[in-house]
Hints:
By secondary structure, the chain is mostly helical. It has helices at about 1-10, 45-60, 65-95, 105-115.
Amino acid sequence: MRTTSILYKIxxxxxEATVPFQEILPLRLKNxxxxxxxxxxxxxCLQEMAVMFSCLKANDFExxxxxxxxxxxxxxxxxxxxxxxxxxxxxxxGIIVPGRDLNHKQLNAFLQQYPSQxxxx
Length: 121
């Protein structure tokens, strides 16, 4: 009996006009961010490495038969190291480059240029 009474009590969705917006926290950015999420585990050239290993496995680990795949992997890794060094150099100088990912120090410097106003009710 109880299950049938539960089945007939269907809750209808609320209309947006009848639900007022209540601001629990202020809708503004903080003036700084933490650097906890800057540490990422980048995996460089995963596709090229997989192709190279599959070639080596298919050819009984004869390196002379997979020179093209090995050179592609080495070139990709060199490009990755160059990009990483360039990013480290620009972040150490404090240069903010639009369109690139910013680390927490650069983002804090940018947020200090345009601080948010204190919250007033």
